[in-house]
């Protein structure tokens, strides 16, 4: 028993997360980010990601509340952290900075005992015959966000969007390979409406 516990302590956080997936252990995640920040004064229509830059202490307080409540996983404040969402709020030139800092803030509060998931929401762009963007451009936007989250210390990434799933994995992996130390895992979970995109979990080791 002691040997088993010692082995777990020697694992990286991402390796511990993969072990959780293997065993089927349930993890408790945090709750609504926007609602909590609105209770702290975030205006309706204001980007929560802007507070990563302007009011980092509030972001720390958000994460701390969930950690103290017993969350096993906290998500970065980056649901709208892609280029297409940030540029609506004048932050299109700061995608990498916003995502890196958001992950650093979450990592700071989480310590070593709580997982940090890099939260990646929909771009707000519709793909189709009249679309102004391509699938490749959408994939690049997610990859750009993923790079910042990885640099900031996210243990794994969660793509909570209905954009095409499999096409995203390769560019996302390619971007996070650089920031991740050799031998670390990259875990990308893709969530979406059941009738649009099924749940995918892709694990890559490099």
Provide structural commentary.
The protein is of the alpha/beta class and 206 residues long. The chain is 47% helix and 13% strand. It contains nine helices and five strands. The chain has a five-stranded mixed sheet, sandwiched between helices. β3, α9 and β4 form a beta-alpha-beta unit. The longest helix has 18 residues. The chain is globular, with a radius of gyration of 17 Å. The C terminus is likely disordered.
Summarize the structure.
The chain has helices at residues 2-10, 13-23, 33-39, 48-54, 56-68, 83-86, 95-110, 135-152, 166-177, and strands at residues 73-75, 115-120, 156-160, 185-191, 200-205. With 206 residues, the chain is α/β, with parallel strands linked by helices.
Key phrases:
206 residues; 5-stranded mixed sheet; 47% helix; alpha/beta; 9 helices; disordered C terminus; globular
Which runs of at least 5 residues are low in confidence (pLDDT < 50)? 181-185, 192-206
| Largest sheet composition | 5 strands, mixed
- Termini Cα gap: 30 Å
Rg from alpha-carbon coordinates: 17 Å
Task: Report the helical percentage.
Answer: 40-55%
The helix/strand class is alpha/beta
Number of helices: 9
Strand order of the largest sheet: 1-2-3-4-5
Along the chain, the helix and strand elements come as: HHHHHEHHEHEHEE
Multimeric organization:
single chain
- Average pLDDT across residues? 81
Number of strands: 5
| Percent strand | 5-15%
Assign an overall shape.
globular
